[in-house]
Amino acid sequence: MHNTPEEDNRTEGLVSVINKLLLVIVVLVISIVAIPFILFYTNQPGKPEVQTQPVASSSPETVKTDATIYWTAPDINTITDAKQKEQVAYGKELISHTAKYLGPNGSVMKMSNGMNCQNCHLQSGTAVFGNNYGSVASLYPKFRARSGAVEDIYKRVNDCFERSLNGRALSKKNKEMQAIVSYISFVGSNVEKGKKAEGSGFKELAWLDRAADPAKGLTVYTTKCQSCHQANGAGVLTADKTEFTYPALWGNNSFNDGAGLYRISNFAKYIKYNMPLGVTHQNPQLTDEETWDVAAFVISQNRPHINTPKDWPDVSKKPVDHPFGPYADIFTEKQHKYGPFKPIVDEQKRLEAAKQKASTIVKN
User: Fold this and answer.
1) Which residue from 293, 282, 317, 129 is spatially nearest to 225, judged by alpha carbons?
2) Of 95, 195, 229, 270, which sits 20 to 30 A from 221 (CA to CA)?
3) With pLDDT > 70 as the criterion, what percentage of the chain qualifies?
4) Predicted TM-score of the model (pTM)
């Protein structure tokens, strides 16, 4: 039995309608299922957001960077005045090889312990965070709480001669003193007056939460330091015995207990970012704890003593790790020498705040 043409047309029309309905249903189902997944994906952390318009690139002024441009010393060869150049060059020679000229076997005079200035001021006083001279010319003369007076560069150099080199002071007119000051002034001549050179002095080091331990420091010293400075801390002399290849860290030929490096924080910062030899502030080798402990070990050893009765006329200005009393606080000399230092820091802040408050009350 065959359908009429009219019946066939009605059937085809019905099938077409059904197919369209099925297509609409399929699209709706896919949309319902897919949309949550799309929304979930696009809102995940770290997924790039779709930009609706072009984004302008950042200008150089708005780009953030961690790069630091550290101070570098000017080149002596840029000096055009022949007399100045000769004096500055001699000053550098004295800084680099102090003992050859001024040590126990010095060719000019015998007035220091055999150490060279650059044993403490690395690379002739130009190493970044190596106790360099970058800020000396720009900041001196300046008031120093240790002496309670304004000091010039000559005074600062003589402090090193009397303390770090355990020797005698030189007169301002002395040829060697003039050369040293000329060199220090030249290397810092590219730093604006009153400003501190980037990378000068010591790089900061966090306080320990405990006291530094000389016994633990001995282990660090044995494994990391004694190959150069020897088990007895006496260092290694050159063949002609005019200077140290590796300086003495304690004993008669080392810095005395009035030197800046006898303060454990200074010595720890110096070690952390410069030792063992070859280390820089960008690639330290010792952990913070190892650094504090080995510093404690070294300063616990015997060394020359210097009488400094005029140091710190205002005892409240003493650094937290100054190892000799009297103090404005109640902490012992041992704690001031080895720590822990945070309680002392907190107490000094409290005392300073009380002092400021009392001063304000008096003024009002």
Assistant:
1) 293
2) 95
3) 82
4) 0.80
